[in-house]
Fold this protein.
Amino acid sequence: MGPIARLGEYTLYYLYDLGRMGKFLFFAVRGLFARPFRLVEVLRQVRLIGANSFVVIFFTAAFTGMVLGVQGYYTLRKFGSEGALGSAVALTLIRELGPVLTALMVTGRAGSAMCAEIGIMRNSEQLDALVCMGVDPFRYLISPKVLATLLSVPVLTQIFTLVGIYGGYLSGVILLGVNPGAYFSGMEQSVLNQDINLGIIKSFVFALIIVWVCAAKGFYVHEIRNAGFGAEGVSRVTTQAVVLSSIAVLIWDYLLTALLL
Amino acid sequence: MTMADEAIIELVDVVKSFGSQRVLDHVNLRIPAGRTTVIAGGSGQGKSVSLKLILGLMRPDSGRIMVQGKDITSMRPGELNQMRLNFGVLFQGAALLDSLTVFDNVALPLRERTKLRPTEIRDKVFQGLEQFDLRGHEEKYPAQLSGGMKKRVGLARALQLEPKIMLFDEPTTGLDPERTKEIYRLFFDTQKHFGYTSIIVSHDIPKIFNLADQVVLLNQGKIVTFESPEAIQLSAGSATLDFLSKSMGDVYRSSELEGTL
C-alpha cells in the first residue's frame, strides 16, 4: 500500500472511530432516561467506582496536601509570607490538584476495571447475548456506570480537597509551626465561589471523560485497530483507555482553566 | 422435505466481506420452518458470520435477509429488537453474564422483556432449571460451573421466552463425548417440547449430521445445500467429497456418517 493510500486509510479509520465514540455517548446518555430506572445497579456501581476508591483517594490527598504544606512553607518563608500558606494550599487543591488527581486515580482504579470488564463481556459474547435477548446493552450496562461515575467523581474530588487541606495543616501548622488561625483565615479570604465552581465543573467533565473513554474502548474492543484478539486485545485496549483518558483529563484541565478562570 | 416447505428465514444474494476477504459470496439459503438446518464448514468459513447476519448483529454488504417474510436489513433498531424475540441463541461459550447467578441469568429475559410478577418469574425459572437438571445450582456463578452446565444454563435462558427459532453456535465444541451426547439429547427433547426451528452451526462432522434435516456446507464464501444428510452420502465420491475433505480435512473420510448417539 502506498503512503497516500495508507494516509487515507488512517484518516477514514479515525473518522469512523470519532463517529463511533459520538454514537456511544449518545446511546449511553439516552439510556439514562429509559425506564425502568436501574437504581440498584447504579448504587452497586457507585460502590465499585466511588466508595471503593475512598482509601486510595484519602492517602493520595493526605500526602499531596502534606507536600504542598512543606513546599509552600519553604517557598513562602523566603518572602516572609508563611501566613499565606493556607490560601496557597487550598487554591491549588480546589482549582487544580483535587479534580485532576482524583480523576487520574479513578481512571487507574475504576476506569481500567470498567474497560476490562466490558471488553471481556464483548469477547465472551455476553454483549451479543444481551442484544439477542432484546436487552439494550447501553441501558443495561453502560448508563448505570455513566451515572455512577458522574455521581462519584465530584464527591471524591471534594473529599480529596478537604483531606488535602488538612494534610497541609498537618505539615504546615503542626510540624512547621505556621499560625493555625492564619492558615484558615487566609483561606477564607482568598477562596472565592468562582474557584469552587471551577473545581466542581472540572470534576464533572473529568468524570464524563473517564467513563466515556474507558467504557467505549472496552465496548468496541473487537473493532479497535491493531488491538489483537482475546485476552491480549483486552489488555491492550485497557492500557490505551487509561492512557487516553489520563491525557484527555490533563488537556481538558488546561482548556477549562484557560476558558473559565 | 420438499421445497414447498415454508421458509422461515431466507438469505437472498448475501455478500459479506471483511477487508479484502470475502466471507460470503452471493449466498442464497432457505431455512425451512420447524426443521433443523446444520451449517457446517471449516473454521473461518463464515459460519458464525452467517448467524450474526441472521440475528441482525451484523449487516451484509449487499443482499437481503428475510425473517418471516420481512427484510431485517432495512429494519429500524426498534423493529429489529422486536423481531429478535423470535430468536433464542445458545452461544459457543454460553455467554452467561459473569456477574449474575444462574438464577438471575435465566430470569434475565423474563425480567427485561415481560411484565411477569417476581413470583411468576421465580416459578418459571425454577421450572426451567428443573427441566435442565440444574436445581440446587441456582445460587452459583457461571465461573463455578462446568462447560456442559454452562451450556444447559444458556439453553434454559434462551428458551425462557419460547422462541420460534433457536440458533446454536458450536453447541458441542469443547465438550467431552459424554457431554456432547447430553447436549444432543437435550436438543431432541427441547425441540420436541417447543417445536422450534433450529439452525446449528458446527464443525462436529459427521456426528452433527444426525440432528439435521437439511445440511448446508460453507466453503470459501460459497454454499452447497443438501436436502438431507443422506443426500451427502449419495453424492459421496463426487465433487462433494472433495469439497468436504478440502474444507474439513480428513475428518470426513475417516469417520462413519452414522455417528454415535
